[in-house]
Amino acid sequence: MSITTPTSLLFRIGAVSKTTGIPVSTLRIWETRYGAFSPVKTQGRQRLFAEHDVSKAILLKQLSSEGHSISAIANLDLDQLRRMRNVQPSAQAKLSTRGEPLSLAVVGLGMANRIESKKFASGLKQNAVKVTDVMQDLASAMTAELSEQSQVLLIKVNTLQTTVHTAVQALIHQHKFAQTIVIYNFAPESVVQAMKFSGLIVRREPISDSELAELIQSVLFVDQARAQEFGTSGSVISSRKYSDETLTRVAGISTNVLCECPRHVAELIAQLASFEEYSQECLNKNADDAHLHAYLRSISGSARSLFENALEKIALHEGIDLHEGKA
Questions:
Q1: Cα(14)–Cα(17) distance, rounded to whole angstroms?
Q2: Is residue 23, in this structure, part of any structural domain at all?
Q3: Residue 106: pLDDT band with limits 50, 70, 90
Q4: What sign has the CA pseudo-torsion 126, 89, 177, 318?
Q5: Which terminus has fewer CB within 10 Å in the chain: N or C?
Q6: Total domains, the chain
Q7: With contact defined as beta carbons under 8 Å apart, do 3 and 142 qualify?
Q8: Mean pLDDT for the chain overall
């Protein structure tokens, strides 16, 4: 399986300043005095920064605002800076009323820079996000060892292909992500539909920071306390477990003890999954009502996940095999 690695983007210092909110003069001091960056210099002495320099600038800004001296952290690499950032009681985490922050593994440096920016954080409202790992692209993600288990995988790719879908599914299987969001620029409709059918959330660029925040929030349980009451793990809605074919098969099985329970529960799951997908499509198409549709998707996804748990209890009691035809 071959996955193309894109050439790293380069940015002028003015673009880095605009992206990070750090004055050009400060970036120059961090570079020349503290050695924080090693930009490429053109023949005209123009500084060109790589994407990882933008990531580092964002993290340095956040950590310095929390009291860390630039001289002490300027020479740390990205992984070290992220580990420091993740243990800080950040303002976003302090405001969170949802307990532990949502853990996120990100593929794509540009996407990671967006997620780690204060502008993006403001769109998450009361939910905090913890970026656990950042991988440059899918090729490097395939061999990466994650620092910890993340709940959600967020991927940014330019083009969706069948090989990309296969690689994403392999990553999910390897690291057991509860939900996966894929942001892309170009793709055949057949690949997009195949990825959606396999339980992935797929969204085409352009997508604003506020829309991206709503998309991420749509995978969260609306009421985490109720989710814990019913014994579900974490605050993220699990992706769909059973295909329509499996649910149709279960609905057609006759049982003596529970009467029509398998059929009713299977049909409810199918209906909830259908509404969940419908709400997701509305979330993709109508930016004005994004928050409402994120809420509706979360409600239907939470209910669908709980009924899937109920179906598993029924199947265990009745000796029904749910693995045959599983999605």
A1: 5
A2: yes
A3: very high
A4: negative
A5: N
A6: 3
A7: yes
A8: 80
